[in-house]
Recover the amino acids of this structure.
């Protein structure tokens, strides 16, 4: 029978099947293929189970994959960021959006704590870039809270929540899955950022949705995940219509004359904040 891995820890795997959730281990021969099973993977299980644990015999082909934190076969990456405590980090946010686009994973944004600070600047930046952005409140959910719209948007999808520590991923998961009681933690006042409470990626069933919590994302991953300078412009979705229209076919969109992307920034078609992060990423990748 087939199933989907919900959680992987210490060489064992929780696999959701039509018969229920089964605790499994993986056949040693899988290591010869160089692919380690991870949450989200669709797997084939042995039919002749001789002990209390199932046996993963085969991994089905993945249609996408995120290596850090490892997760596969996603319908959506929901990037979670708070508008305060900790304050937004555009570098980390744009890193996650870029990696999702390069791996052909649709992405959306959840802004948390919108009742504690003004979310409009962030709404303007990312809605202009073409992303769906949902505003969520912490202390007064009835005041301008987009949770009902978010639930409708997530319906039927396999979703991974990702974001730097302390932005409220686990709190949001608790709201999406009442009764889950996922552990949360206060913000470190000394460091101004969240403490890690999620140690590994794990998916939870919610009706027709699978929602995944992932460890805090707190560092740039572009270099570690092998992104090249040549493909970076394609990771910014609002750049797409201008790529190929520059004067030079190998334009890096930095200082070259006749750059269509820089002209779009000057005309206000591309937000300067996003372009500045593109320039920073190009320097990192250099």
């Amino acid at each position: 029978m087939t199933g989907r891995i919900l959680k992987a820890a210490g060489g064992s795997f929780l696999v959701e099947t039509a018969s229920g959730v089964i605790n499994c281990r993986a056949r040693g021969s899988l290591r010869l293929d160089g692919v380690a099973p991870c949450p989200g993977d669709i797997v084939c299980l042995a039919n002749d189970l001789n002990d209390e644990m199932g046996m993963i015999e085969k991994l089905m082909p993945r249609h996408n994959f995120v290596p850090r934190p490892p997760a596969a076969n996603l319908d959506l990456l929901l990037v979670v960021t708070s508008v305060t405590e900790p304050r937004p980090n555009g570098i980390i946010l744009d890193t996650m959006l870029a990696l999702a686009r390069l791996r052909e994973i649709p992405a959306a944004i959840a802004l948390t704590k919108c009742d504690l600070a003004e979310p409009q600047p962030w709404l303007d930046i990312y809605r202009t870039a073409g992303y769906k952005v949902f505003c969520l409140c912490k202390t007064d959910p009835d005041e301008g809270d987009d949770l009902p719209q978010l639930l409708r948007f997530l319906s039927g999808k396999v979703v991974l929540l990702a974001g730097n520590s302390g932005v409220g991923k686990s709190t949001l998961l608790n709201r999406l899955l009442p009764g889950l009681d996922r552990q949360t933690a206060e913000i470190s006042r000394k460091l101004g950022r969240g403490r890690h409470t999620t140690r590994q990626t794990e998916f939870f069933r919610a009706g027709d949705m699978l929602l995944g919590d992932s460890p805090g994302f707190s560092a740039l991953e572009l270099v570690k995940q092998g992104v090249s300078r040549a493909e970076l412009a394609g990771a910014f979705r609002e750049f797409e219509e201008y790529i190929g229209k520059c004067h030079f076919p190998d334009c890096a969109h930095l200082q070259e004359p006749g750059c269509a992307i820089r002209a779009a920034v000057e005309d206000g078609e591309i937000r300067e904040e996003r372009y500045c992060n593109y320039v920073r990423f190009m320097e990192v990748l250099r």
